């Protein structure tokens, strides 16, 4: 069965980013991926996204579905079969509060999702978010508000450099339970506009796991937010791999 092509609205998308020692990240990646580096650091994080009006491309927007979602992602690059340089993100885990995403992700559309509960308070400026996976393997806590500048400790020189880095990572490859291939989807947006977000509190049991990230190898870098973006998900060919990363949380 062919995957559905989906349209929708990104009501809110938070990119919470951590800089990590490249050798630590490489151990988590399946072939053929390598960490995409910025000033000597690998970059990984969480995409916390509220989707609305999600529906097949031929369906009117009022019939679309809404959901809160979290994707743990790592910026990667690789050489394709034609020896051409490619870049995107590797996604070891997706979580959603939508039963539709859980039941049909990887079947009707790319990306297998774990079930999670989300408690989100968003007044358009300040966001307080908590997520807990129903399998008890993941918790996320975030609190903060919009701001005008990146943290002075960020590896990115300015907002434009950070924006370009993440804009070029629109192709995502998702871990599957079978671990023989990766689902692939490309995010197509009508516009790309990010704003710095001051994350006063950010906790993820994934990045706090010392078995994946030994103490001192991972640091919070910055967070970015985008709102009210019309978009579509363009299905890309699955990637067959010889071995999958051991990305259990």
Summed over residues and divided by their number, the pLDDT gives a mean of: 92
* CATH class call: Mainly Beta
CATH topology: Acetoacetate decarboxylase-like
How does the helix and strand content classify structurally? mainly beta
Architecture (CATH level 2) name: Beta Barrel
Number of strands: 13
Domains, number:
1
Principal-axes geometry comes out as: globular
Distance between the termini: 30 Å
Per CATH, the superfamily is: Acetoacetate decarboxylase-like
Estimated share of beta-strand residues: over 45%
Order of helices and strands: EHEEEEEHEEEHEEEE
Largest pleated sheet: 13 strands, mixed
Rg (CA only): 17 Å
Runs in which pLDDT lies below 50 for 5 or more consecutive residues are none
Detailed description of the structure:
This protein is mainly β and 249 residues long. It has one domain: Acetoacetate decarboxylase-like (Beta Barrel), CATH 2.40.400.10. The chain contains three helices and 13 strands, in the order E-H-E-E-E-E-E-H-E-E-E-H-E-E-E-E. It has helices at residues 22-26, 99-104, 159-167; strands at residues 6-20, 34-35, 37-38, 41-56, 65-79, 85-96, 114-122, 126-133, 139-146, 171-174, 181-189, 195-204, 218-240. Strands 1, 2, 3, 4, 5, 6, 7, 8, 9, 10, 11, 12 and 13 form a 13-stranded mixed beta sheet that branches. A hairpin with a 2-residue loop joins strand 3 (37-38) and strand 4 (41-56). The longest helix has 9 residues, at 159-167. It is globular. 38% of the residues are buried. The model has no long low-confidence stretch (mean pLDDT 92).
């Amino acid at each position: 069965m062919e995957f559905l092509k989906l349209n929708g609205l990104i009501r809110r998308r938070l990119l919470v980013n951590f800089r990590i020692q490249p050798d630590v990240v490489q151990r988590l990646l399946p072939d053929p991926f390598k960490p995409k580096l910025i000033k000597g650091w690998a970059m990984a994080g969480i995409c916390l996204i509220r989707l609305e009006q999600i529906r097949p491309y031929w369906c009117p927007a009022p019939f679309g579905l809404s959901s809160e979602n979290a994707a743990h992602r790592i910026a990667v690059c690789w050489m394709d079969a034609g020896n051409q340089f490619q870049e995107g993100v590797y996604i070891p885990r997706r979580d959603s509060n939508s039963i539709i995403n859980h039941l049909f992700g990887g079947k009707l559309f790319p990306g297998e999702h774990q079930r999670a509960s989300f408690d989100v308070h968003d007044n358009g400026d300040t966001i307080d978010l908590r997520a807990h996976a129903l399998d008890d393997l993941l918790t996320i806590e975030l609190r903060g508000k919009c701001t005008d500048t990146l943290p002075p400790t960020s590896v990115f020189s300015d907002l434009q450099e950070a924006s370009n880095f993440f804009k070029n990572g629109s192709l995502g490859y998702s871990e599957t339970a079978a671990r023989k291939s990766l689902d692939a989807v490309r995010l197509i947006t009508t516009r790309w506009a990010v704003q710095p977000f001051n994350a006063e509190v950010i906790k993820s049991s994934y990045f706090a796991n010392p078995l994946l990230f030994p103490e001192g190898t991972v640091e919070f870098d910055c967070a970015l937010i985008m709102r009210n973006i019309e978009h579509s998900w363009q299905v890309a060919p699955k990637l067959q791999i010889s071995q999958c990363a051991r990305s259990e949380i």
